[in-house]
Amino acid sequence: MDKLVIEGGFPLYGTVGISGAKNAALPLLAATLLAPGVHTLHNVPDLRDTRTMLKLLEILGARWERAGHTVRINSDHLTGVEAPYDLVKTMRASVLVLGPLLARSGFARVSLPGGCAIGARPINYHLQGFEKLGVTTHLEQGYVEARGEGRMRGNTIYFDIPSVTGTENVLMASVVARGETVIKNAAKEPEVGNLIDMLVAMGAEIEGKDTDRLVVQGVDRLHATESAIIPDRIETGTYMIAVAATGGCMTITDCIPAHVSALTEKLLLCGVEIEAGATSLTVSCPEIGGRSLCRLRSVDITTLPYPGFPTDLQAQFMALMVQGDGTSIIHETIFENRFMHVAELKRMGADIAIEGSRAVVRGIGRDKLCGAPVMATDLRASASLVIAGLSASDTTEVSRIYHLERGYENMVEKLQGVGAKVNKVKA
Ligand SMILES: CC(=O)N[C@H]1[C@@H](OP(=O)(O)OP(=O)(O)OC[C@H]2O[C@@H](n3ccc(=O)[nH]c3=O)[C@H](O)[C@@H]2O)O[C@H](CO)[C@@H](O)[C@@H]1O
Ligand SMILES: C=C(OP(=O)(O)O)C(=O)O
User: Fold this and answer.
1) Which Pfam families does the record match to this protein (predicted)?
2) Are residues 256 and 211 in the same domain?
3) Is the interface score ipTM higher than 0.90?
4) Counting atoms of ligand 1 from 1, which one is nearest the CA of 168?
5) What pTM value is reported for the model?
6) Is 385 helix (H, G, I), strand (E, B) or coil?
7) Which atom of ligand 2 is nearest to the CA of 116?
């Protein structure tokens, strides 16, 4: 098993280019099942999760080829309807094939994802949405079997919580249902917008992009098309926090600054300087006494659905707040168990107490974290530990980095490119 060895304390200077978003690539790849023909997707990041999704499409009968970040998928002849346990257990987003398979074949069998490190994560909203469209679902030996009686029928679907993949899954089923579907309290994440753009290019009729009310007029058929994955806002935010934590000045290119505005506001309050261009962000720590490592004001965050502060940046922001000059309250409202990084950060000297869904982070100031062997428990917890390691004295070893490889393309190379002393070694 590989691990990362990080020698901390070196400020980051230079430029990092942002890859396509994992959380947009996964639903857009699944959407290629909706219509026969050759679909072209650009800016697809090469990650463990996108490789898993391509493997799943292959199991279902699609054929694909990759040239750099462009993937061509031929879904003319689908031969399967099942997402097996072995794949779903490595990637929950495998459930995103349910909607397209129902739309294309009227039947799908998908292993029910279990809980994961960050929470129970049920898919009841997905299933309730399909049932509203006339689909029957039942559980058989750990698999969800979903069957439509003839063509699905449009309906009004209300989500208690604006589920991101729930919205995407139900949307993909509804675009070919008969009549009108209204999705109320839909997720407004930019990745949902990216999927809507692709579906519309395929011939779907959807109104309400970027709002919490989506109105779909079902169409008889869709066609293959060409789309591009949006830049990864979570990767963007991770590098913004990395430079705030480590000091220096980094220009982050190929990103959409508006997609990270909640984080930008918080970093400005911390005292970090940020200049936004059309597709770039320059993040720097003001120099004090010849060092770029400014004092860091502690600020509070509450994770919320978009455009609120993303839960996928909570762990990384905590790695920054442990170096603050006061107390920061970090309130996690999306997932019930997303503080697995706390125990590991404490091993590096952080002062954090968990009180239910809140973490009380008492900042220990700059230059106080010390390197340690730590273990990654999930994707963003891993990124948090990398940020802590980059800012700590001595050496930090992060094990179980396969989590990191699910969602960060070339992280080691990108960090080395801005002066970080980080290497991947065999454990
Ligand atoms: C592949 C992908 O896009 N993953 C993202 C997606 O996950 P995902 O789509 O799984 O997350 P959701 O938006 O569905 O989850 C939001 C909340 O709703 C709950 N819930 C959700 C569905 C359901 O049927 N029942 C239910 O109770 C979840 O347990 C959670 O507490 O959005 C999350 C929240 O922004 C991000 O952290 C993930 O990175
Ligand atoms: C939680 C995440 O992803 P997933 O929903 O794929 O587990 C994430 O990207 O931080």
Assistant:
1) EPSP_synthase
2) no
3) yes
4) 9
5) 0.98
6) helix
7) 7
